[in-house]
Design brief:
Layout: H1 4-13, E1 42-50, H2 53-62, H3 68-71, H4 73-77, H5 88-97, H6 100-104, E2 108-118, E3 128-140, E4 147-157, E5 163-174
Antiparallel strand pairs: 1-3, 2-5, 3-4, 4-5
């Protein structure tokens, strides 16, 4: 059991003013639990992410992908798109990553898999990727009590609203009452 002096000391150690501004409680940013995921919603993940040449070159080299379409401006200029394109794996990573704060931060157990990954239009240096997600299915796990299997349809659009990436992802979520 703590008393008011202990709370003040703890707050001082955290550089927080206990009771400042009439704050009654803290709210920790997290994703949504299984029960909170809405089948009738489209989750818009903002802000978008403008993809730079540096992002593309760094990601491509970090992942040991020497594809000239991502790294060689002279060669790429002679190809059908006339310029280097953003690595599609970077596009996918940012698409999924954009959903984390809103949907899965602290509420995910595991990614179970990806299907139907498509890149119908190229993403170019300087384009901004906007992500959105629709929950297409959910069910309680039959083998893992307190968890649920959820299917997410992720869509990435550029600044003009053109779809540049789509992916279906299956995720294992915590149910609220079972979460650690």
């Amino acid at each position: 059991m703590t008393d008011e002096a202990d709370v003040e000391v703890a707050a001082a150690e955290l550089d927080v003013d206990a009771g400042a501004g009439g704050v009654a409680h803290d709210v920790l940013q997290r994703g949504l639990y299984y029960e909170e995921l809405d089948l009738d919603a489209r989750y818009l993940h903002r802000p978008g992410r403008t993809m730079t040449e540096a992002d593309n070159v760094l990601f491509s080299t970090l992942t040991m992908n020497p594809q000239a379409l991502h790294l060689d401006a002279a060669w790429s200029s002679s190809q059908p798109f006339g310029e280097r394109l953003v690595n599609s794996m970077l596009t996918l990573a940012v698409l999924v990553g954009s959903s984390v704060a809103q949907l899965t931060q602290g509420t995910i157990v595991a990614n179970l898999g990806f299907t139907d990954v498509r890149f119908p239009h190229p993403l170019r240096h300087g384009d901004t990727l906007y992500a959105e997600t629709v929950v297409t299915a959910k069910r309680p796990s039959s083998s893992r009590p307190g968890q649920g299997v959820v299917t997410l349809a992720h869509t990435g659009r550029n600044q003009d609203g053109v779809v540049v990436a789509e992916a279906t992802r299956t995720v294992l979520f915590w149910c609220r009452d079972a979460a650690p």
